[in-house]
Amino acid sequence: MTTSALLLIILSLGIAAGLSYYQYFYKAKNLSNVYRFLAFLRFVAIFSVLLLLINPVITHKSFEVVKSPLILAVDNSSSIADLKADASVKEVYEKLSSNAALRDKFDVQTYKFDQEVSVSNAFDFKGKQTNLEQLAKNIKSVYRSANRAAVIITDGNQTIGNDYVYSFDAEQAVYPVAVGDTTTFLDLRIAELNVNKYAFHKNKFPAEIFLNYSGNKNISANFKIVQGNNTLFTQQVSFSPEKKSMVIQALLPAEQPGLQVYKAIVTSAEKEKNSYNNTKNFAVEVLDQKTNVALVSAINHPDLGALKRSIETNPQRKVRVLKPSELSATDQYNLVIAYQPTADFKPVFDAAHRAGINMMIVTGVNTDYSFLNQQQSNLVFKMSGQREDYTADFDAGFNWFSIENIGFEQFPPLQNAFGTITVNGNVSTLLSAKIRNIDIEMPLLAFAENQGKRTAYWLGENAWKWRLQSHVDNKSFEKYDVFVDKMVQYLTSNNARKSLVVNHERFYNSGDALEITAQYFNKNYEPDEQARLTIQVVNKNTKQTKKYDLLKTNNAFKVNLDGLSAGQYSFSVKELNTNTVYNGTFEVLDFDIEKQFVNPDLNQLKQLAAQTKGQVYVPNQVDALVKSLLENPKYQAIEKAIVRKTPLIDWVWLLVIAALALATEWFTRKYNGLL
């Protein structure tokens, strides 16, 4: 309470006493007990009201003892059971959690962790992953400023997350208790396997394999990759106490389209304690990139042969040269190239438009530009009957797809009609046109997208000279053919928007998070918040069917399918309001990452202890750990003063007292006839 408040309270006492005296004793002829009682009531009422007006703050101080937190974190992953250390873990935990001296000195908090962290004192050792980094983050978040100790009972083998050694606070000691047999056993294992999710049919795709070895003698081993009964790759490898790891690079053929499952195997003549980690399954989605291209022309020109050769350099592409009257149907084609179109091309444009097939339009001196203006709106042509040579200028800012400048500026000019070309709509220019090195701000090679349909405009003939010039410059047609192939790849990709878009992997490892997300769009391609999505999952082998609802998240719908056994699955996602359906497949591979270990990672735990100024213990050293914690002067209980400040106006009983005093005074005066 401040000095000014105290002075005001003293003044209030004087005012209340003075007013009471003046009311009942000044010039009073009768000083009975009734008058004294009434004066007291008046004093109480006035003083209470004045106190409420002054509103002094009353300070109350108390003390409490705050103990240092002791975090007991227990590894609940299945690797603990696989290493036959589950009984040891429970025994260590019981000794620590039930120690009366520790509980007297510390505020003991118990956690379990696998892929997630939770407060618990019950452990089943069935976690599918181990994430020590997440434990470090949780401890930092919960105990931000406390002087704490952390005892982590674990084998130190982390399967997901970043390196946990540097994830813990370096100023707060961590005491790992390493469980599991630390005896070094001979063990070969596939530590990691990196491969792209997709490969193209008839091509080769790379695989990168990391092999690890633990042991005390020299050994030879055989590594191979098989698919079914076929061996696709094999290599002899050798290890020694000094050479404990190896990286193998393999090129594998993609012979069959679709989801292909492979198995990597490393074997030796030595007996191993754990052979589960000698194999690893992986899968690759082989895409059939086969493309049929219709090259339509009413004239003969060297450009046709050059285009056909460049496109067919990719063995997955086939070009058929047709006249406009020979293109009866476009269903069998993925791309239509209209070379110098005229009015005879109207059935070609109509068929491509109906089928939603992308087009490449190549113009030249024989092109009917009036007809072309009628068939598309991306470019507006105002051309004369004169001819002009146009050279190219590469636009480095083009980003619709990746393309390299192969020397376009040095290529011979293309010939086209003279005039103006105006861009209209969503058009991006790859090559701009120049006349005698003067930029005329017109496209020479441009791409357009309109309502999901893609169109390319190559505005000039004699591109066959470009291919020859590229060969002169590079002693090969390769760069030019890759340039053409990338254009065809872009044009044959389907960019049409679908109302139901589902994202999923083609394969999952057992124990991985198995999530499928979906988005549903209305006719304006806006996310529909009222959509109702369900998924039906069918095991192809057992025919067992499960149904789930997809739950709404911030910007999509999501379902978690964790717990599915290894096998092949088909699924369908359905929007119930419109009956829109998406069908797909995925495979769950039989791979348990927690079974990859034969020993605790003692070196990693020692690094963690050194980084945090702690110490590593083993289960038979629990008593030493307890003694170290109890004797460490860093962990002392702190007496904390708690100051509570309460404004008097919050004390409602003071107002009640004032009201009761006034009411009692009134009834007393009424009873005694003093009103």
Question: How would you describe what is shown here?
Answer:
It is a single chain. The protein has 14 helices and 33 strands. The chain has 675 residues and is an alpha/beta fold. The strands form seven sheets. It has a nine-stranded mixed sheet, with helices on one face. The longest helix is centred in the first third of the chain and has 22 residues, at 3-24. The two termini are 40 Å apart. The model has no long low-confidence stretch (mean pLDDT 88).
Q: In terms of structural class, how would the helical and strand content be classed? A: alpha/beta
Specify the helix fraction band: 25-40%
Q: Span from first to last CA?
A: 40 Å
Main sheet overview: 9 strands, mixed
Low-pLDDT segments, ≥5 res: none
Strand order of the largest sheet: 16-15-17-18-23-22-21-19-20
Query: How many DSSP E strands?
Result: 33
C-alpha-based Rg, rounded: 41 Å
The percentage of residues in β strands lies in: 35-45%
Summarize model confidence as the mean pLDDT. 88
Assembly state of the chains shown: single chain
Give the overall shape, derived from the CA principal axes. Answer: flat
Total helix count? Answer: 14
